Amino acid sequence: MTSTATQPAAVHAPALRPQRRPWRRIVLHGIVLLGGIAMVYPLLWMVASAFKPESDIFSDPGLLPATFTTENFTQGWDALGIPFSTFFLNSFVIAAISVLGNLLSCSLAAYAFARLDFRFKKTLFAAMLATLMLPFHVTLVPQYILFQSIDWTNTYFPLVVPKFLAVDAFFIFLMVQFMRGLPRTLDDAATVDGCGPFGVFWRIILPLMRPALAVAAIFTFIWTWNDFLGPLLYISDRELYTAPIALNAFLDSTGASSWGPMFAMSILSILPLFLVFLFAQKHLINGIATTGLK
Amino acid sequence: MLNPLNPNPPLSRRSFLGTAAAGALLTTAGCAGFGGGGSGSESDGDASLTVTWWGDASRTELYDAALALFEADHEGVTTRSEFADLGPYLERMATAAAAGNLADVLWMRDTHVGRYGAGGSLLDLSEYLDDVIDVSAIGDAGIASGTVGDGVFALPTHYVGQALITAEDVLGAAGVSGGDIATWDDLAAAAREAADPSAGVFGINDPTLDDTHRHLEAWIRQAGGELFTPEGTLAADPAAIEEWFVFWKTLRDEGVLPPADSQSEANGAGWSGDFLVLGTSAMRLSSTNHFTIVSGLTEAPLGLFSTPALADATDDWWFFPPILISAAANTDSPEVAAALIDFFINDAAAADVTRLNQGAPSSSEIRDGLTPDLEGAETAFIEQISREMEQPARPFPIRPEGSEQFNGALTRIGEEIAYGGATVSEAVARLVSDAAGYLTAE
């Protein structure tokens, strides 16, 4: 737009706005609202179904239960002979350790790629990115054989130890991008003051990259909390089940699944994710906006 | 990784503590999941077996109780059970088989025994037959259902059959009775009578959109054919497959079947969303054991009948897909594993616990022993299977490798036809030409 074109608009704008704006706003908000309702409907349906008797779930399509019951919750909580709190705790322990591992190892790896000079850096960076593109299923069997040969099946080690070895290339990439945006003069100043590479990392880089760390922490938590295949393969003791595996125990695709209790427990199991997202939303958006990921 | 300006950076106390704390948390977390893994078996008659099946927590409760009986009978033997729903179960089995770490005793799909048996993952049970595993009550047909090449890699614990389930009140309102349906033409006529599109009532559920296609296999066997050759290639006459899809397409076009999208949606919802359960369909084709599930979900009167036959059907078309049990080739205690297989096939006390949860017990003795205790739907189910088993049945070729893929392809072309994406002849021609690629002779 040229300045001559904008000027008359600017002059007329105060007079026009009060008339045009409400309409556009209402329409736009309406569209967004409809989109939002469409997105949230399955979730609302699940919440409604959790409070319906089993027989009403598929025959009564309304979102307001005709008969309200909390039986699904009480029944689901103890359905496996072990209270569901055990599974939540298990999931939480794995997720918490994974978050710690990923933050520590990925930030260190990212620091090396972003700031240090070493041989084959570019090749290794490319290899790291290549692992990002490798489908999970390709490495599934070799990985299983590896963990089985050191007797780690039916423990949480296969689920958390890799997180301390910087295997989540996505986060490394994200952090490298973020670090590249930090001014190098800060590193130099710290080096002049006597910091070694680790000192620079610990005292300068790490405190500055909080938004990237927040994104990595939140995503790690969500992904580990929701992970199904990993625990399915490695965990066989019922006491060690994570929440998704326990939810699967309500399903019987060759017979009749217990939908009610499953929905009830599903609601409980998405609560932590919901809370994490609710409280960390600011950091998440901040982090994504500053790491160049769009 | 050295900074050229400062080759020997001192490790600060804080950073050291931070790393050490992380390591400590990982190694000493007071959580059960970080103990030693694996479960080896001990010598001197002591054995520890892992047993796995597909299903949900309620099945597991029954089978755990049966395992406890086995442990009580066999001193020194401990068992541990694992379970998952069928899909994840098969995924885990594939990974564990590749790593040679299958559970000692595991339930096996008839669709997978060919692959795992030929692949060397399963224990050949031949040498344990008669000595350890009593096969007198399951007969040669039972042994044949787990025989791959020269080895017996699985034995049936249960059978399921194919059936017609009817909503008697819906049918009755149209003046039809399920008992009068003997042929596919009878079925079509009854469905047309019962369908009332204006009231939202369908004549019969659409079986071509289901995820298994055993009624199609019945249709083919009734016509004198087989789905697969003993060598593992496609045996079915494409014309017979076409006739099957045309039969259902005609009913769909007349509005007797549910529209494709409603049917797909109902299939996704599972049993509680089934049109028969909801009272909006007069009939459905099913596995025989589904009768007990449907009966538990609706108050309406239901009928259970044999699968309709072609007017000129062969009389030995009957077949019963087996629910199989296998032992892993990697087990440390093959003798005990074989004993456990015998226990699940022949033990009356175990059958008293597990009842009909997986189907009709393969052993005729166990079936007869259970019958007096059953009631309602369970009786109808087991009586129908027992009655049908007395019919002549020619051998039922074992599912070859690739049969799962073929099954999936059937569902896919069923959808294409139902949604109008392809004509029957196009879709079947493609099915047959594709199958030539993955159903290959050994």
TrEMBL record, chain A:
CDD domains: TM_PBP2. PROSITE patterns: ABC_TM1. It is found in: Cell membrane. The keyword Cell membrane applies. Residues 88-280 form the ABC transmembrane type-1 domain. The chain crosses the membrane at residues 26-48, 87-113, 125-147, 159-179, 200-223, 259-280. Pfam families: BPD_transp_1. Keywords: Cell membrane, Membrane, Transmembrane, Transmembrane helix, Transport. It is a multi-pass membrane protein. The keyword Transcription does not apply. InterPro entries: MetI-like (IPR000515), MetI-like_sf (IPR035906). Belongs to the binding-protein-dependent transport system permease family. PANTHER family: ABC TRANSPORTER PERMEASE PROTEIN MG189-RELATED-RELATED, ABC TRANSPORTER PERMEASE PROTEIN YESQ-RELATED. This is Carbohydrate ABC transporter permease. It comes from Occultella gossypii.
From TrEMBL, chain B:
Coiled coil: none annotated. InterPro entries: Bact_solute-bd_prot1, SBP, TAT_signal. SUPFAM superfamilies: Periplasmic binding protein-like II. Gene3D superfamilies: Periplasmic binding protein-like II. It holds the Pfam family SBP_bac_1. This is Extracellular solute-binding protein. The lineage of its organism: Bacteria, Bacillati, Actinomycetota, Actinomycetes, Micrococcales.
